[in-house]
Amino acid sequence: MASFTVTALAPALGAEISGLDLRAPLAADGIAALKRAWREHLVLRFRGQLLSDPELLALSRVFGELDPPGPNPYGKPFLAEFPEINVISNVKKDGVPIGNLGDGEAVWHCDMTYIETPPMAALLHALDVPPSGGDTFWANMYLACETLPRALRQAIDGRRAIHDATYNSAGMMRKGMKDVTDPREAPGARHPLVVRHPETGRAALYLGRRRNSYILGLPLDESNELLDQLWTHATQPEFTFRQQWQPHDLILWDNRCTLHRRDSFDPGVSRIMHRTQIKGAAPVPYVEPGTMAA
Ligand code: SIN
């Protein structure tokens, strides 16, 4: 039996896993135990993991089939040798960015929910981190859902929202996209606002990202008002975990029941992260036990 310890990092979500060297293959019982801890804590942190890119890819495959990164603003993979790896960085080489998202804030979001089958998970490996700034936050969408005021829950019952594909979380337009002037016409998948997690069966609020979101079937101002209330509720500090990065931290998160965001940092320092993601299935609406699906 693999032996590691699990220490909660925040009341809402997040746990530190210690005692594992992720370069070594994990035994089946160790993987099962890790997945149990992951289902419970949603975000797992492993410190001091000196992973090469092939080791990061091998580790990622433990959690499922790799999902290639979404289109970045430059239209080609950052690592030609490992196109499944996305580089998140502010560093430029010869004036050309080596990665995505720059040094600004990345707003609250869930990864790639603008497609029909968003990734179920992501792994982020810190190679170079600033001495301060660039912290990443995750929020627990089970908790957000369970604590929704009744009227708000009823207002979104059975409803879907548009998950706009136009902008990334740093506010950069994706290649090939056009500016959106009316969220009702935004390109992107339409997902249920409350989804059933396929493994735990629990209900999770599923918001994607705020910009250009729209709740189908509602007048635009009503949709905006509801979305603002949902986002304020979902991202309250009590539901979050804050990650202050150290070099060679590895974070694994469940993209089906969390949101994340990143703080800005000093443009004069470098931050380099390598990221993979795992294929997921189309989100399905949560149906209260004992009721009939619409
Ligand atoms: C991301 O949104 O995947 C990037 C998070 C980060 O840069 O910490």
CATH class: Alpha Beta
Helix content: 10-25%
Radius of gyration: 19 Å
Beta-strand content? 25-35%
- The number of helical segments is 5
GO molecular function: metal ion binding; taurine dioxygenase activity
GO biological process, one term: sulfur compound metabolic process
Pfam families: TauD
Domain TauD/TfdA-like: 6-276
Describe it.
This protein has a single domain (5-284), classed as Clavaminate synthase-like (Double-stranded beta-helix, 4-Layer Sandwich), CATH 3.60.130.10. 17% of the residues lie in helices and 26% in strands. The protein is built from 5 helices and 20 strands. It is globular, with a radius of gyration of 19 Å. It has 294 residues and is of the alpha+beta class. The strands form 5 sheets. Strands 1, 2, 3, 4, 5, 8, 10, 18 and 20 form a 9-stranded mixed sheet that branches. A 4-stranded antiparallel sheet has the order 9-19-11-17. Strands 13-12-16 form a 3-stranded antiparallel sheet. The protein binds succinic acid (SIN).
